[in-house]
Amino acid sequence: MKCVGSINISHFLVTIISLGAFLFIGSIIQIEAVKKEGTLLGDYNDLKKLVGDIKNGDFNDDQIPLNDFKNSVAYQDADENMQDCINLAGKIGHNLGDNEIVHCFENANYFKDKYPNVSVPKAKIPPPESKPGPGPEPKAKPSAAEDYNDLKKLVGDIKNGDFNDDQIPLNDFKNSVAYQDADENMQDCINLAAKIGHNLGDNEIVHCFENANYFKDKYPNVSVPKAKIPPPEANVTANVPEANVTANVPETNASLNVPEANVTANVPEANVTANVPETNASLNVPEANVTANVPEANVTANVPETNASLNESTRKITLDINVAKDPITRGESQVVAAVASDPTTGKELDHVFIKLAIKDPIGIIVKNYTATEGNLTRSFKIGENAVGKFTILATASQAGVESRKSLTFQVQ
In terms of pLDDT, which residue wins out, 17 or 10? Predict the structure, then answer.
């Protein structure tokens, strides 16, 4: 009886110990699970740490919103190539998977090599490989915007994600049939979009296709670029007939002095050497080269003022500055334009150097732009903490002539 009692007590103790161990292990597993599920993406300040936790199973999420991840320090501290890889992965799958972050961390060209044509599939799972069989091969899709013959087809592919390019050169796209078959208003819209952003984005083509006045309404102060017509060459040579500068008189040593300013004379078939510097249009004839004698008082060549050469020092440049929004809210994108034009014709100048500097309210230059044509238009984002009066300083120079102008706008 004592033996049976001791056995029962032993069984009871074993049961209690086993149950306690089971409950203890279960609580550890639950705590660990809470740790894994409770880790937030925004908690990560280091991409390397995030990748390590993904590999270790401490972080698991296959539906990471790309915009949320872009706000994390882990993303913002990554280099540009890695950010491009993550952006492409997020666009391909509409959301970002943790394993895709690992791929980009280990090889920034992973998705670029996998999708060389930057053709984004509609679904996350790649389509199954086509089975070989009889029949014609499928027609290859255009890989560049200028390969499209139909603007409607291009817009459809952009919307479906079959075409993606945010850096389309405008001149290349102008050579496409899709652009040339579009009406004039749509072409003007596309030209204006490229002028504002320096290159053409696929989404901007969609905007213009759906509303040809989209950018004209959004940026009313920015002019549509027009084809440049070269100005006619000025006639700056005055022809003086030879009868007005020579005469037969007895031999003496005489000199020809023409005091008239701003006169360029071209005297053919005479024994007179004319030395005409550009900045001083008077004729100086050395004594030794004169074979004609004329009375001292009557040796002046008069040329009407209308045939006088252009004086470079009197030329001017009209310089205008304008902005898209004034006042503007911090965090928004501002568009600023500087236009150098001929004060007489009003046409934009060619081969003119324009410099544009933008200063913040405390006088620090935050943006510097230059151009070698008559219209300099740039877009930039106002900082979230920038409040006050910004100053724009513009300079235009050509052939030694310089014009300066400034403009301010308010950020609130």
Answer: 17
Is residue 283 located within the same domain as residue 201?
Answer: no
Q: How many whole angstroms separate alpha carbon 138 and alpha carbon 277?
A: 71
CB of 373 closer than 8 Å to CB of 389:
no
Of all residues in the chain, the percent with pLDDT exceeding 90 is 36
Phi-psi region for residue 368, left (φ > 0), alpha (ψ -120 to 50) or beta? beta
- Cα–Cα distance for residue pair 184/149, rounded to 1 Å: 17
Report the number of secondary-structure helices (H) and strands (E) in the chain.
13, 11
- State whether residue 175 is helix, strand or coil: coil
Residue pointed to by tokens 């006639």: 235
Q: Are residues 331 and 392 in the same domain?
A: yes
**Domain membership of residue 179 as a residue range:** 145-218
CB burial of 64-102 (b: ≥16 within 10 Å; e: otherwise) equals bebeebeebebbeebeeebbbbbbbbbbbbebbbbebbb
Task: Assess whether pLDDT exceeds 90 at residue 275.
Answer: no
Kindly state whether residues 304 and 334 are assigned to the same domain: no
CATH number at residue 323: 2.60.40.1930
Q: Return the bridge partners of 183, or none.
A: none
Q: What pLDDT is stored for residue 65 in this prediction?
A: 83
The overall pTM is greater than 0.70? no
